[in-house]
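anyone seen this seq b4? input:
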Amino acid sequence: MKANIIMAVVGALALTAASSTGQSLNLSGATLEGSLVNQTLINSATSANDGEISTWVVSDSSIDSQGYIFIYQLQNNGPDDIIGVNFNKYLASQYVSSLSYSNVDSGSLPGHMIPSVTFTPNFTYNTITAGGAATFTGDLPIGKTSWFIAINTDVNSFQTGYALAQDDYQDHGLILAPDTATYTTPEPSSALMLLAGFACFYAVLRSRRAME
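predicted toks r here
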């Protein structure tokens, strides 16, 4: 009986390790086009440093033959879990695909941090808002570093934009983003819808914690 239990545990660990290994981003053939690392996530209410965000822009035809790949990573310094993040200056027509990776196979991302140990992505793709923002939802606890969020696009140029991260308040930080989006900032209606969505996610997260 004990032997069967041990074999089951070992098998589960092997499957977990295999799934996490499958989340590696292989950039061995990539070219780094630009980077903006360790930008402060500023709390909109208190102006406190709530964390950091980094961006890398790479080209790799084996991953995305249509345009640049924008890669983001966040670190949460508090005061609460980050439950969502959106990156401005994206249009639905520019978006090709996205995926989160637990590690990078090459040193093509200067200044990147090692993600915190977890076997599930911190953030998953939600939608492109009418205001021109790629939105992601999830949960990044205090003191943790996120997986790498890679957004494949059909554009071949970039500019400075900003990200909005939602915790108790809203944090904003500089990023690199596509430079052909129609809107430089989210439209008021879209921004309000995005905030309302984050508020719902935050309420669900709070109620889930209260039940635990």
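The CA atoms of residues 145 and 180 lie 30 Å apart. Confidence is low (pLDDT under 50) at residues 1-22, 181-190. kinda curious what u guys think
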